[in-house]
Amino acid sequence: MVNAFKDGWLTFRSIFIGMGVTIRHLFSPSVTELYPEEKIELPKGARARLFVNIDDCIGCNLCARACPVNCIDIETVPATSDVDLGKTSTGNPKRFWLTKFNIDMAKCMYCDLCVHPCPTECIYMVPEYEYSEYDRSNLVYQFSDLTSDLVEEVKEKAEKEAEEKQRQKEEMQRKKEEEKRKKEMEEKSSVKPEENKKDEDSENESSDTNKGDE
Amino acid sequence: MEIFGNIDPAISVLAHTLLPLTIILVYALAAIWGERKIAGFIQDRLGPHRVGGWHGWAQSIADLLKLLQKEDIVPADASRFLFKFAPFMMFAASYAAFAVLPFSSAYIGSMINIGVFYLLAVTSVLTLSVIMGAWASNNKWSLLGGMRSAAQMVSYEVPTIATVLTVIVVSGSLNLMTVTELQSGNDVFGFLPNWFIFQNPFLIVAFIIFFISILAEAHRVPFDLPESESELVAGYQTEYSGMRWAMFMLAEYADMLMLSLLGATLFFGGWNSPFGEFMAGPIWGFFWFMGKGLLLVLVMMWIRWTLPRYRVDQLMAICWSVLIPASFINLILVALWEVIF
Fold it and tell me: Is the Cβ–Cβ distance between A84 and A96 less than 8 Å?
């Protein structure tokens, strides 16, 4: 009987304690954020969307190589000698036209690995997270600011220059070889054959290793 | 009755009949919204917040419109007539009980001498309609819920009736209007109103038992086993959809209000003002009556978001081994008190 009353008292006590807790919460302010109207500030270093400051990009391709999911697609064209693309804000000279710099945010997994290799710190995360799209292709962000006409012009120029260079190179090589042959001829006629052989072998070896490195 | 003095009797009867209905409908919309808001606030949320502008006040109306558009599904193997009839019978039963509640000194649906008896008798039909809907659904979860509900309501009717009886012992009348009139005035300790809960220490115990019992009668947490949405899908409401389900819901809320108003009438002086003659009169009477009833409804909601649900055996143990003996002992003690003082 006494125990029953004790239990009863304990029951009521615990119920009233619980009701006290709930009524305190009834009047305490709610923790809900009314999302579309109110937005909480993202923490520092939040990874939400990639952004490329294309003016600072030198087209080094390091970010694309670092990307584990291959969501960065870069196409560069070397600048011809008649144009100067200037320097980035960090002082690095720009040597490439960036004809394509696409980031597929649908593929991106927000790992931040592309951000750190960048020598000019031009690719980074911005705290912008409301960019859902109805079409997945809209999530491919194109950062290149060149017009298609300019891209073609630049490409043509670069090809021409490359051909020119190639030709010059070949010519140079031909000249070198001729000179070499002349020298050999001269040496053969002047120096003894035995000593000459040894020297030639060592020279050939070194040149072979050099080629392998290249 | 006086407020409809010199009108055509047919219109008077119609007005008498429809007045509680309008109250119930407005109350049900407000209470469902209120319950969700209270649930939200207690859990540090905001609750419905979109529909209608200010704190989502139109949420219940939107829900009602949604329910109206839903398909009225009757399961293939269900007993069609009983299935369709059960929700309306349930609402009719809880609505019929409003006939004997004195809403103010000027308005009571039916001034009958056996008011409390009629009320308790007519609310027993609720059990019948719950089990009718459950059985007609031809679904084991429905039937399980229905059986639980029948057991629960039949059991908890005993302590409810016993505690109501304690009040009747004090008042000596079954007419709720007379019961209310007996509680007017401010004579307890010179300032407290003459409400029954202040008149007799054993009536406080009676009120606690009564309140626990009506929680179970109205299927409220911690005794909401008939529905127990996390275990029995939705109990006897499982197969219902659209407006028939809404009728069940309406009946539940009406039942809740009716039992709270009964508690307010029996223990808290019904339409009597707590300040004696101040703020008294038919209109203020209605205000006080509804205010007291809604306060009890609020406490029910408060409890709902505080306590977990009992197991079905615990529920029965509480009723049969605690509440029923306590209520009968209390009845004897109240009777003795009345004889001695």
Answer: no
Q: How many CA atoms lie within 13 A of A11 on its CB side?
A: 9
B41/A25 touch (CB, cutoff 8 Å), yes or no: yes
Please say whether the beta carbons of B149 and B60 come within 8 A: no
Give per-residue pLDDT as tens, B309-328.
888 888 888 899 889 999 99
Dump pLDDT digits (tens) for B207-261. Answer: 999 999 999 888 888 888 777 767 767 778 888 888 888 898 899 899 999 999 9
| Contact check, Cβ <8 Å, B305/A22 | yes
Dihedral sign, CA of B149, B154, B157, B162?
negative
Helix axis angle for B9-42 and B242-267, nearest 10°, is 90
Tokens 């409804």: give the residue.
Answer: B297
Residue A63, SS3?
helix
ipTM: 0.76
Q: Do B44 and A25 touch (CB under 8 A)?
A: yes
pLDDT in tens, B61-79: 998 899 889 888 888 888 8
CA gap A116, A62 in Å, rounded: 9
Question: Is the C-alpha dihedral spanning B185, B189, B192, B198 positive or negative?
Answer: negative
Nearest Cβ partner for B306 among A18, A29, A32: A18
- Helix crossing, A2-27 with B9-42: angle to 10°? 90
For B299, the closest chain A residue by CA position comes to A19
Name the token pair of B231.
Answer: 């275990």
* Beta-carbon contacts below 8 Å between A and B: 39
The position carrying tokens 């009958």 is B112
What does pTM read for this prediction? 0.76
